[in-house]
Write a structure and sequence with these properties.
It contains 8 helices and 13 strands. With 289 residues, the protein is α+β, with helices and mostly antiparallel strands. The strands form 3 sheets. It has a 5-stranded antiparallel sheet with strand order 11-10-9-12-13. The protein has a 4-stranded parallel sheet with strand order 2-1-3-4, with helices on both faces. The longest helix has 14 residues. It is globular. It starts with a strand and ends with a helix.
């Protein structure tokens, strides 16, 4: 019997509830596995007693990035960690978008402003400021050129916490066709979803946002699938990825651009795609070996 850790985080006011976790645990148990839900920072857990540690909803990691990355490194030494620790480290900092762009993957244009950098903000277009290490639209906001003062305060707050900021043009294709999430599991497309725009004009960066508004099932186009596969192929080291989510938006020419590549703890949205659970269970059991 395979023993599998479904890795999550402790409940908290800033952490969403993982709606998929109970169903996934039960489905694995029905398939004959000993599946246990554990918090990544629980000191009582003996990771070497598991055949696989599957990162699921460690949704507080961006607030404790150094601690989380150290845990991933140690966990990966004790058992098989999915995804691998090196992948987690690379993907936890959204400067990976620069690596994808350098590899020829169509991505949303991004500049990075670290602590001490001048507030070099667009003066001719709407733009987004968000942290290079973040999740759930935390510390993200949308600005017009006339809102420079508010954006500068936003940057100062992030820099005070040691965070590097990302500055991206606001991609208007989101307003028309939303953001599409292509989910891969076990090396194959699992399913896809679409959500509406997260950042409304005038919403302060420190106000909690709905991370997945208007979520619905989606059938990806050939162009979307091709860009997603290019992004996965560009991950350094050609690692074995158990899971991945590629978030896409439409650029000015209508072609898909990578907004984010989620390789750490992407929400699977199994509650929206219940037929996918069996395929996830099959891939997890195979990975646990």
């Amino acid at each position: 019997m395979s023993r599998i850790a479904l890795v999550t985080c402790r409940p908290g006011p800033e952490v969403s509830v993982d709606r998929d976790l109970p169903g996934l645990r039960d489905a694995l148990a029905c398939a004959g596995a000993d599946a246990v839900v554990v918090a990544w920072d629980d000191p009582r857990v003996r990771w070497n007693e598991f055949d696989l540690a599957l990162i699921r909803s460690t949704w507080d990691y961006s607030w404790r990035a150094a601690e989380f990355l150290a845990w991933a490194q140690e966990c990966g030494k004790a058992t098989r960690l999915a995804n691998p620790a090196d992948v987690v480290r690379w993907n936890a900092d959204k400067r990976y978008l620069g690596d994808l762009a350098a590899a020829g993957v169509p991505t949303v244009p991004t500049r990075y402003l670290g602590p001490g950098d001048p507030a070099d903000l667009p003066g001719d277009r709407e733009y987004v400021v968000k942290p290079a290490s973040g999740a759930g639209a935390r510390f993200a906001a949308r600005y017009t050129p006339g809102e420079r003062e508010a954006a500068v305060r936003h940057l100062a707050r992030m820099h005070a916490e040691g965070l590097t900021a990302m500055v991206q043009p606001y991609v208007r294709g989101i307003d028309a066709r939303g953001e599409r999430a292509l989910q891969f599991f076990g090396g194959r497309l699992l399913h896809a979803s679409r959500k509406a725009a997260v950042l409304a004009p005038g919403t302060p960066y420190d106000e909690k946002k709905v991370a997945h508004p208007g979520l619905e099932a989606w059938t990806p186009t050939e162009a979307e699938l091709a860009v997603a596969e290019r992004a996965l192929a560009a991950v350094p080291g050609d690692p074995e990825l158990l899971y991945a989510r590629v978030d896409l938006v439409d650029g000015e020419d209508g072609g898909p651009l990578v907004m984010e590549l989620e390789l750490v703890e992407p929400n699977l949205f199994l509650f929206l795609h219940p037929g996918s659970t069996a395929r996830v269970v099959e891939a997890v059991l195979a990975a646990a070996g």
